[in-house]
Specification:
The protein is of the alpha+beta class. Among the domains are: 27-63, no CATH class; 66-99. The protein is built from four helices and four strands. Strands 1-2 form a two-stranded antiparallel sheet. The longest helix is centred in the middle third of the chain and has 22 residues, at 68-89. The radius of gyration is 27 Å and the shape is extended. The structure holds zinc ion. Zinc ion is lined by residues 44-46, 48, 53.
């Protein structure tokens, strides 16, 4: 239910309108939605709860994994940056922010490995 009060130019209350739009959330969904929103609000940018990330008593052993899809994307993006730099030297505009990158899984066509736009496969 939404209640809206209306006023004239002098600020006098001239009426109230009430609209009832059926909610697409039932009560249970709303509870879960609220809990999920609170959970997301409590996360640090690194993806763990802020209370864990900011805990001064914790010690962290840091490591990383390489995502092959991410690596393939970065490989092609870096090559494109080099091409762009060459074009910009010749006063040819490039629009890198307009590129919406995609990565299609072509394992079935090309076999296992990392696909790059120059056709090179390299094992990680
Ligand atoms: Zn963090």
């Amino acid at each position: 239910m939404t209640k809206v009060q209306h006023f004239d130019a002098d600020g006098n209350l001239t009426g109230t309108s009430v609209s009832t739009t059926p909610s697409r959330w039932d009560e249970d969904s709303r509870v879960y939605e609220l809990a999920y929103t609170e959970y997301l609000d409590g996360l640090c940018e690194c993806g763990v709860p802020r209370s864990v990330c900011m805990d001064p008593k914790r010690v962290w052993k840091v490591d990383f994994r390489v995502g092959n899809r991410c690596q393939a994307l970065e490989r092609v993006q870096k090559a494109k940056q080099k091409q762009d730099a060459e074009l910009e030297k010749k006063n040819i505009d490039t629009f890198p922010l307009a590129r919406k990158w995609t990565a299609e899984d072509v394992t079935a066509q090309y076999g296992e490995g990392i696909w790059t736009d120059d056709g090179e496969d390299s094992q990680s």
